[in-house]
Design a protein that fits this description.
- With 321 residues, the protein is an alpha/beta fold.
- The protein has two domains: 2-210, no CATH class; 217-310.
- It has helices at residues 95-112, 131-141, 152-163, 198-211, 248-258, 274-281; strands at residues 2-5, 13-23, 28-33, 53-54, 61-62, 65-68, 77-79, 83-87, 120-124, 146-151, 170-178, 223-227, 263-267, 286-290, 306-310.
- Strands 1, 2, 3, 6, 7 and 11 form a six-stranded mixed beta sheet that branches.
- Helix 5 (248-258) links the parallel strand 12 and strand 13 (263-267).
- Helix 1 (95-112) crosses helix 2 (131-141).
- 35% of the residues are buried.
């Protein structure tokens, strides 16, 4: 096992585990540790994970069973040719959070160990991913050579079916996991939120755009996009954390009046597929949006486009800006 980041801080630690196997009969994940490994060993390089690690920005704990033994060998053992990662959603059904806090964090972790060059599978921990969630996951992951496998048990059963293997007792694999601090948090020893991550996040963005064959260049004609969360189905009487534009109708009318010859679109992003989101963003020269998860679509704007993001300082009623 190899770890990077602060030894004493789970949110800032990423680890690459080897010698991990899934026991088909017991459905347990087992870490086969060297004899020097003890239960009170802290999670440091070359030792077993004696303390739970977290696998998401929620700091959800997880640890495999630890045994002092040799890793299983032989024809009854299946070795996954994909790296496994663990995930608990930051904000289910929110595309912006799904891209960056969830899959983006995993991409950063994989990049720490140069493991993003290898196909990977995400196993969910502690949440239920419905059909719309699965579709969104698949849309994002397919361009990254990633795959959503479901729960841990479902992931390994899927691997067995994919490889068409029978009479298998163990599935052994590599795992990249750790604190999974938010991609928007500073990565030690840097203090700035994006320092040390720029090239990794740019590669993440470009790989997605390349897969969808979107050449993102500044459009030849102006197109203003106004994000609608004020009247969207996300709004309800108890939505204290809702972010939207309070006078959206007035803003739309004003922009139409002063720019009558410029295309103006009012968009509810969550009603569109991921590909439709990217295609529409590639036509924008100006995007006006509230802050929050919806604003995390900004990195997919064309170079030279402008964004007006409404912050939290001016609020009206239920966090309507």
């Amino acid at each position: 096992m190899t770890c990077v980041g602060q030894d004493s801080s789970l949110p800032n630690k990423y680890c690459h585990f080897e010698n991990l196997c899934y026991c088909v009969k017991s459905q347990d994940v087992v870490f086969y540790a060297p004899k020097s490994c003890t239960e009170d060993t802290t999670m440091t390089p070359r030792y077993c994970p004696g303390k739970p690690i977290s696998y998401s920005t929620k700091m959800s704990p997880w640890t495999p069973q630890v045994v002092t033994d040799q890793i299983p060998r032989g024809s009854s053992v299946l070795y996954m040719n994909r790296t496994l990662t663990l995930l608990d959603h930051w904000a289910q059904l929110n595309l912006g959070h799904l891209i960056w806090e969830d899959i983006g964090n995993i991409w950063v972790a994989l990049s720490m160990f140069n493991a993003q060059q290898k196909p990977f599978t995400i196993a969910n921990m502690g949440f239920k991913c419905d059909q719309s969630c699965r579709s969104a996951m698949d849309d994002i992951l397919v361009g990254l050579e990633g795959m959503y496998g479901g729960s841990l048990h479902e992931t390994f059963q899927l691997e067995l079916r994919t490889q068409k293997q029978r009479d298998i007792t163990h599935v052994c694999f590599d795992l990249v996991g750790g604190g999974f601090s938010s991609v928007f948090q500073a990565l030690p020893p840097f203090e700035d939120r994006l320092s040390g991550k720029e090239s990794t996040l740019l590669a993440f963005r470009n790989k997605i755009l390349d897969y969808y064959k979107l050449q993102v260049e500044l459009p030849r004609e102006h197109h203003i996009i106004l994000t609608n969360k004020s009247q969207s189905v996300w709004k309800n009487a108890g939505a204290q954390l809702h972010r939207g534009i309070f006078n959206l109708i007035e803003i739309k009318a004003y922009l139409s009046k002063i720019y009558p010859d410029i295309r103006l679109s009012v968009v509810e992003w969550h009603k569109l597929s991921f590909r439709q989101n990217l295609a529409l963003l590639s036509t924008a020269t100006i995007l006006i949006t509230p802050c929050g998860g919806v604003s995390t679509l900004l990195p997919f704007l064309p170079p030279g486009a402008h964004a007006i993001v409404m912050g939290k300082s001016q609020c009206h009623l239920r966090r309507l800006y």
